[in-house]
Amino acid sequence: GPEDVGRSCILVSIGGKNIMLDCGMHMGFNDDRRFPDFTYITQSGRLTDLLDCVIISHFHLDHCGALPYMSEMVGYDGPIYMTHPTKAICPILLEDYRKITVDKKGETNFFTSQMIKDCMKKVVAVNLHQTVQVDDDLEIKAYYAGHVLGAAMFQIKVGSESVVYTVSLNLNFAFLLRAAWIDRCRPDLLITESTYATTIRDSKRCRERDFLKKVHDAVEKGGKVLIPVFALGRAQELCILLETFWERMNLKAPIYFSTGLTEKANHYYKLFITWTNQKIRKTFVQRNMFEFKHIKAFDRTFADNPGPMVVFATPGMLHAGQSLQIFRKWAGNEKNMVIMPGYCVQGTVGHKILNGQRKLEMEGRQTLEVKMQVEYMSFSAHADAKGIMQLIRQAEPANVLLVHGEAKKMEFLNHKIEQEFKISCYMPCNGETVSIPTNPNIPVDISLSLLKKESAQSVGPDCKKPKLLHGTLIMKDNNMRLVSPEQALKEIGLCEHQLRFTCRLHIQDPHKEQETVSRLYNHLKSILKDRTVQHLPDGSIMVESILLQVSSHSDDPAAKVLLISWTYQVSIETFWLSHLITMAVSTIVYTFQFHILIANAEHYSPFIWGEFISGDCQKTFRRACVY
Amino acid sequence: VKESVYKELHDFELQDATRVLEWTGDKRVCVAGFEPTKTNEILQLLLPAKLHTRENQCLERDLKVEHGGFSEHPVYSLKHVPHSSLLVTSGPAASPVQVWEIGNDEKDVIKPLRAIPSRTGKETYTKIATTSMPSPRVAHGSKADSVNITEIESDKVLYSLDVTRSDPVGNLYFVDCNTFFVCCTSGLLYVADVRQPHPALEGKKDATPAIASLSSEGHIVITDTRKLGSPLKSARSRASTPASSELFMCVSWAPVLDDTIAISGLDSTVQIYNTSSWDATMRERDPLFTHKGHSVVADGEDESVPMVTVHSWHPWNERTLLSAATDGSLHAWDWSDKLIERDS
Prior knowledge:
The complex is a heterodimer.
Chain A: E1 10-14, E2 17-21, E3 53-55, H1 61-64, H2 67-75, E4 80-83, H3 84-104, H4 113-121, E5 123-126, E6 131-133, E7 138-144, E8 152-158, E9 161-165, E10 189-193, H5 194-197, E11 199-200, H6 204-220, E12 224-228, H7 235-249, E13 255-258, H8 259-271, H9 278-286, E14 295-298, E15 309-313, H10 321-330, E16 337-340, H11 349-354, E17 359-362, E18 366-369, E19 373-376, H12 385-395, E20 399-403, H13 411-421, E21 424-426, E22 445-446, H14 448-457, E23 472-476, E24 479-483, H15 485-492, E25 500-508, H16 513-527, E26 533-535, E27 541-543, E28 546-552, E29 559-567, H17 572-591, H18 606-616
Parallel strand pairs in A: 2-3, 3-4, 4-5, 9-10, 10-20, 12-15, 12-16, 13-14, 13-15, 16-19, 20-21, 22-24
Antiparallel strand pairs in A: 1-2, 6-7, 7-8, 8-9, 17-18, 23-24, 25-29, 26-27, 27-28, 28-29
Helix pairs in contact in A: 2-4, 3-4, 16-17
Chain B: E1 2-13, E2 22-24, E3 28-32, E4 40-46, H1 49-52, E5 63-71, E6 77-80, E7 86-90, E8 97-102, E9 110-116, E10 127-131, E11 137-141, E12 148-151, E13 157-160, E14 169-174, E15 179-184, E16 189-193, E17 211-214, E18 219-223, E19 233-237, E20 250-253, E21 260-264, E22 270-274, E23 283-285, E24 289-291, E25 308-313, E26 320-325, E27 329-341
InterPro entries (chain B): WD40/YVTN_repeat-like_dom_sf, WD40_repeat_dom_sf, WD40_rpt, Wdr73
Keywords (chain B): Repeat
Organism (chain B): Leptobrachium leishanense
């Protein structure tokens, strides 16, 4: 519609992939500002290495107008995705706009016809609901979005993270185009435009009524009505509307449509029949779209016939061809009317008259004074506030991002979305980056043996509850595996280190070293009757897995050091045992009239225990250390 | 079949139904939700150029939400303080009279400013009326003996209606900055001059506009403010059953057309009457125009016929009205009293 001014271009980084969403042109500028600032991506060089793909939502130039500039002048050779209808229409509009800008206005530094062709070679057309694998990790899927023929919302997915992008959609049942629908896809982020979220649309019923009333009023007064249409636009919709109205009101004024339009439209509609709704599809199968009772084929001589008439003619923007010829003939009469039912690119006659221009410079320095009534029919069913809310409810995103061109702070809208859906809402300005945290699922493979071993240990009544698994995580070649520690060591080629906790007791004992050991051994054996206490050949004592060694100072043979050590893997039971031993030793210490304080045994952790002792005994004991 | 036609018709669908349609300037209206169980929104809507410019050449047909706010209480009444960014709302019994401020152009928020202390009624909600002369002030009350005028800035009670009857108030209205009238649900009318301590039951001496009142039976009574005792004109509206509740009853004078009133709240229609030929006898009169648009329910929706909640005249476009209904529909229509012939 005439409200289109911005240049849409959004960059999304998701799961390490970079995607450009739309590549629009700003119609209000004649210099570099008309294109997005691609230096934001790279200062020098091509975009190919930095972008994984480009996605175009629909054919309006504020969403695809900078494509040839980006791909051919800045440099991008990667894939560009759009739907089949968009692919068919986009180059036509780009070429029209190029002609106006370069051929008529004589501007330079603009893309050429060849560039448009080369650019379109990079386009990959997608079908609706078809999952396209851009590469191994990145997949995209197009959903029907209504609004204009070929408009699509795109779901972009990398692993478990996803984004849904939609700029224009129609959730109500349109006459020709179906209503938009999206799965409950629960994306991490939904990107849409704030303009729609603050708009409350007039109903289609009233728009149609207004259109019919205008045509009727003009025809009643004996005027001629010109309706410039795009072959793929709303021509058929409007024809059906007028046909029914003529029938009901018993009107006699002739309605014509240009023959080229029929052929083209029927061709396109055959191509894109899946895009139209069930009712139209049925009609199409039953009869030719342009076999009407009241609507007849147009001959160029008819334009000069007296009396009222209605003519549908291409192109829709009044920039060339039959519609422009008829317009020039009829413009001077205030009884006549031109109704613009669609999108007009800046610089076209259609755009000029819609903006109130009444004197037009035509070819050959002629000036055309427009006295006829100019009307605009906004049939394009953009989404509105209700539609956006419905879409959020349907898709259930975790975050919403609204792209906006307004300077106004959208606090209310932000709160409204956050309150109603309990999700975060972002509204970045142009050039601003927003980071959205996600909770990606990271798949990890586990070896069967480890899974069996670990699950065998925790078979219980709540076997459906999440379980704790012990294993070693190996990250290698972009995938992750959980294996047993032994296997991990083997795979990586490391040897295992053991962590042992030790205690040193300094004791004064005049006996020989060996005697001290045997005294200690006998004592432990007598008090730990149900434990395995061994006297090893190397002179050390083992109580279960706890090791005791005695050594003496070289300068003072009476000063002995008793070393107690145990591994970090000890069970609570063994731990208690180690405590017991220390107690036992302390008894000896006491016997030998050495005074040593022993820690309170209420601490479970060997670490805490070790620390506690060291603090208490003036560092007689040393902390747990690694062998 | 003769059928009235519309010059213009717009049909908008609001997210939530509104029972207020308050103009803030001549381009914007405020609407607000009145659902008891949720947070309600107050919205300021910019009307499409078609509805606020005199030029014929207009493209836009859509409403734009310019400002919005959240109200804890359902909004039963909403008044704009003229020439300011202030709004005053009241809700069901026990909810406060709340003052709001519409943000400037850089922000899209309507923020609560303060609550005005008022004696809230148990059966009826507090009715409000605003004026900005000589300072922003609000008249509020649920019963005749509890009607006060409070200055918004200072919270000062400037005037209390000194009456003994406690009839529930149906409506409050500032005739000018010093004169306001109170219409009780019992049919009792008061006209009060804030400069005089006692309200007049007999009315004022100097000429002021006539008062139109609507009963739930569909009776319309026009009363001269100088002679409140006996009705000047009366009529019975055509084919209306008594209103199921007085909640949505609404009657208003056309701001431009002479002797023209609109009524709604009895059913799913808005009716427009020319009162110039009426006399004091209660006789059934034909409306000039009946807006039935709200009863046109979309296909497939098997819902009961919605009730019109409120209507409001366009400030200067003589035959343009806005109306809203319980289904959330908001219509803007320009009616014409010209009848066209059509084959049935």
